[in-house]
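User: Hey, quick favor. My workstation is busy. Could you predict this chain's structure for me?
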Amino acid sequence: MVEMKSDEITGLIKEQIKRYDYSLSMEEEGVVVEAGDGIARVFGLENAMSMEILEFAGGIHGLAMNLEADNIGAILFGGVEEVEEGDEVRRTGRILETNVGPELQGRVVSPLGEPRDGKGPIDSSKTRDIEIKAPGVVKRRPVEVPLQTGYKSIDALTPIGRGQRELIIGDRRTGKSAIAIDTIINQKDSDVHCFYVAIGQKTSDVAKVVDTLRQYGAMEYTTVITAGAEDPTPMQYIAPYAGTAMAEHYMYQGDDAFIVYDDLSKHAVAYREISLLLRRPPGREAYPGDIFYTHSRLLERAAKLNDAMGGGSLTAFPMVETKAGDISAYIPTNVISITDGQIYLESDLFNQGFRPAINVGDSVSRVGGAAQNDAMQEIAGELRLEMAQYRDLEAFAEFASELDEESQAQLARGERVMEMLKQDQYQPMPVEEQAVSLYAAVNGYLDDLKVERVKEYENAMLDHVDTHHENVLTKLKEKAELTEDIEEELKMALAEFDETFKGEEDGSGTGD
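Assistant: No problem, here it is.
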């Protein structure tokens, strides 16, 4: 028999204690006391956190929204009819999160990052909380780098910078989504990661957007997040926050991202529905008291980060639908006060065939010329002056015969400038070509043309400059400023084209 000394026994016991795998799991369970209309009231989960994921019977998930004294109000993400009174509910200890990362690019996904395009699973190992605190002022830097939309009327008059929040506002069917889609298409040769969040839209409408983006080669760098009209209201509510989390993955890596919320009017309606079902006190137009905070904490996450934070950016295009052009309604005024400017689309202009139907008087960018290159800034200054003078005289247009010659000339130029600002959908224009077109417009090269021939002139002129004076476009693109040499070369190209174009008319296409 082998005798062991007491210190050996002690050593063995200590070694066993070190190797002992001690794990304790505690599960907090509650019970459903009421269920219906996508809402469940749960008793017994005293330590539940706000925005925590709850697991119901049958693997159905919900979100803890109302933390009250004796129960929790939870919203359900599906399987609403399967949740019944008396069902067990478990805490997961996880705050609501979504899949993020490059694996989502080119895909159509749900707000939780699940595939919706029938192209198989998404192998993403990274997740982010759907709601996080927006970066503070110290972590930001001024918005200075342009994000080109490809629209002359926007890039010249209401320029967008990387990190800006620019509201697109207007009635239904005025071209709001078209501007956002064209802006995404225009990022093809840039390094911007794009996200399109469709809230409460028909599946057929989302499919059209995806087909358009794919047709123009934009789906390669775009993620479409959809919470359709047929989806549970909670999905529509979390969709913009989830899309922002996916975009922030790139921003905090030092990259540039661009996100479209189409639209926040439907998002506000979804949140109102949830709040009323949760019996939160209604306020103006039955919206809850925190509807402003709901949108402000979302849009404040768009930012241009400073170098210490990696220098990334997130640019946001929230959309809001107005009724009969009323921009003073509750939700529009809320979002206008949160954003850095707005692009206002008018039904009357749209119906007159002016596309994009931008009211240049009511549209504004609070970033201004800081988000333009030097060449566009110089030309846009003259353009704004021309437009301001034209708007002043427009009211007297019906009495044009009574105006002096100078005013009539100013009115005529304004009409041609407005015609030059028209642009077809899915045809975004490089900024150097925009600069050439607008330079010709504000410097009188169109003054003796008939208005209906302005577009023909523009297309032929750009073709001429690109073919015979490619240097001008190349220099404008590389130097991004209108130097004396470039301007002289541009004047020579325009004069040369002017002579050719008007010579071909044989006197039939000139004059008013």
